Amino acid sequence: MRWIIATAIAVLVTSGVAATPSQAQTATAAAPSARQLDLTRRYINLMMSDQLEDAIRQVIGDDMANDTATQALPSEDRRFILDLTAELVADLVPQMVDQMVPVYAAVFTEEELVALVAFYDTEMGRSIADKSVMIMPESNRAIMSVMPQMMEKMAHRMCEYYSCTPAELQEMRSGLMEATGGSPSATPAPRTK
Asked: DSSP assignment of 115-178, as one string?
């Protein structure tokens, strides 16, 4: 589920990286002006797409398909959970926007926000925003395709650091892989020191 929210936020800002200033930046930066807040809200709203709810539903469905606990449920229950989760995420988008506005307004200058709004308020900008939402499910699948490899490496590195036993390594690998829908490989355990 954590991937759903992260993906939904990524869709809202197609710049590729969410603007999250460090606490130090936030503490030293002047509070955004009312104009910056208004421009930010307009920018985020322009990033929304009519396809957002369908894209979120597809991402949730993909996540559920990779979750062994969910796969064990009857199809009627899976459908109910999918519908409910998609509905609740869609319902929370306005609250996410409310939380994101001051964050983005603190990062982008008024001049940058004017440029963003001007661009995304054009036919080309709306087309890019719509396409960014349309590719969200496939993009999520691409990201998730490398997660098993990352989890495998993470298990090995953590076990090297903590000097895990082979059984502890296998348990960690299994847990990490299950969380991403992968399956542990038969890679031998690292040698302990």
From this structure: HHHHHHTSHHHHHHHHHHHHTHHHHHHHHHHHHHHHHHHHHHHHHHHHT--HHHHHHHHHHHHH
| Cβ-Cβ contacts under 8 Å for 68 (sequence gap 6 or more) | 178
Q: Are 10 and 75 in contact (CB under 8 A)?
A: no
| 99 SS3 class | helix
pTM: 0.63
Residues 42 and 10: their CA atoms lie apart, in Å, by 17
- From first to last of the 193 residues of the chain, give the pLDDT tens digit: 333 333 444 444 333 334 444 444 444 468 999 999 999 999 998 988 777 778 888 888 888 888 888 888 999 999 999 899 888 988 888 898 899 999 999 999 999 999 999 999 999 999 999 999 899 899 988 988 898 889 899 999 999 999 999 999 999 888 887 766 665 444 444 444 4
φ, ψ (nearest 5 deg) of residue 188: -65, 155
Residue type, 32: P
Contacts of 73 (CB under 8 A, 6+ apart): 81
Q: How far is CA 136 from CA 129, 131, 155, in A?
A: 11, 9, 28
